């Protein structure tokens, strides 16, 4: 009887400690993701769209940013593997890592290049439409089956994205053009981004399931291949020395790139921690909030005007994603779940932010 009484007395205290501990974990995860990825978004727009120096020079070497990001992430991943005393040997054939690497380079390059022609709010909201290419690649590569509500959500989100892109504010100017945003070319680059990103996440999923590999193992070899390929591309295009010369002349650009690579790598830790601790559904909700905050911050910081049609489009997109998240009672770990589709995010999909 005494034991029962003691257990009943200590239960509220234990429950309180558990809740407090969970609150601290949630605060740590949310603040980490918001800080790193919102900073990442602001920096990538600043580097690609804001001129440097008295001569107003623009940084045009997007592949150089890919190289810097990947070499930083590769070094950190190697350090994580060595610190945890796990093998550095590849689990899958190298050429399969290269498939992910090539598609990932194309994804990130399209993302950076698109910022030359469309604003960051347009690019960020367009990323929400990646559900469709992920579902297509999932059906082709993984033979997955999706449910009716998944297709409905993808359609509604894509509709909202289309409204946001097709009705820009007339005063938003592209720094690489002589007038309004070059929507056609910018949208073409974003379509390339969505297609390649959908393939990247789906093929990563296939590697994880087919070879039972550690996430740091895949990140290390994928980013290592990306380093080699992006460096080769820079040399072939003749952009390596001009990019180095640019950052040598413009020291503020150099520090921006260093900070960009640092927060991009740091975000990997917070993303993995959040998914491992709280699951993909909570992570998807946080990422949706991060995208909304990034758009609002970009509009204020870089003075992007939004038309009333764009406000409607943004409301459709974020309203649909939030509704889907809150209507789901618990994270369902099924292959047909739309959770990793919503933002292209899962613990399997974390090579780039």
UniProtKB/TrEMBL annotation:
Subcellular location, principal: membrane
MF (Gene Ontology): antiporter activity
Record keyword Membrane present: yes
Membrane topology term: Multi-pass membrane protein
Membrane-spanning intervals of the chain: 23-43, 151-170, 219-242, 254-273, 310-327
Subcellular localization, as worded in the UniProt entry: Membrane
UniProt keyword annotations, A-Z: Antiport, Membrane, Transmembrane, Transmembrane helix, Transport
Cellular component GO terms held in the UniProt record: membrane
Superkingdom classification of source: Eukaryota
Xref: InterPro entries: EmrE-like, SCL35B1-4/HUT1
Keyword Transmembrane recorded: yes
Entry similarity comment: Belongs to the nucleotide-sugar transporter family. UDP-galactose:UMP antiporter (TC 2.A.7.11) subfamily.
This protein's name: UDP-galactose/UDP-glucose transporter 5B
Organism: Flemingia macrophylla
């Amino acid at each position: 009887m005494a034991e029962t009484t003691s257990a009943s007395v200590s239960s509220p205290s234990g429950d309180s400690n558990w809740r407090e501990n969970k609150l601290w974990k949630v605060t740590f995860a949310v603040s980490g993701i918001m800080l790193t990825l919102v900073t990442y978004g602001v920096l990538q727009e600043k580097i690609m769209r804001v001129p440097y120096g008295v001569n107003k020079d623009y940084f045009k070497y997007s592949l150089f940013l890919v190289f810097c990001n990947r070499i930083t992430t590769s070094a950190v991943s190697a350090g994580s593997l060595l610190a945890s005393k796990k093998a550095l040997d590849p689990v899958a054939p190298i050429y399969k890592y290269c498939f992910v690497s090539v598609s990932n380079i194309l994804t990130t390059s399209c993302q950076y290049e698109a910022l030359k022609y469309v604003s960051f709010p347009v690019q960020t909201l367009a990323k929400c439409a990646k559900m469709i290419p992920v579902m297509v690649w999932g059906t082709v590569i993984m033979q997955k089956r999706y449910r009716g509500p998944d297709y409905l959500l993808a359609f509604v989100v894509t509709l909202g994205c289309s409204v946001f892109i097709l009705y820009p504010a007339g005063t938003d100017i592209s720094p690489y053009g002589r007038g309004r945003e070059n929507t056609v070319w910018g949208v073409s680059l974003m379509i390339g981004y969505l297609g390649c990103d959908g393939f990247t996440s789906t093929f990563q999923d296939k590697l994880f399931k087919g070879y039972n590999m550690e996430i740091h193992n895949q990140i290390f070899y994928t980013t290592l291949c990306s380093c080699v390929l992006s460096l080769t591309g820079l040399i072939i295009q003749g952009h390596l020395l001009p990019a180095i010369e640019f950052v040598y002349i413009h020291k503020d650009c150099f520090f921006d790139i260093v900070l960009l690579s640092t927060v991009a790598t740091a975000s990997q830790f917070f993303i993995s921690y959040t998914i491992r601790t709280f699951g993909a559904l909570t992570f998807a909700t946080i990422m949706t909030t991060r995208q909304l905050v990034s758009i609002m911050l970009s509009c204020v910081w870089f003075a992007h005007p939004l038309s009333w049609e764009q406000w409607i489009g943004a409301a459709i997109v974020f309203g649909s994603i939030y509704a889907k998240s809150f209507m789901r009672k618990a994270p369902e770990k099924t292959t047909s779940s739309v959770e990793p589709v919503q933002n292209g995010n899962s613990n399997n999909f974390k090579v780039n932010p």
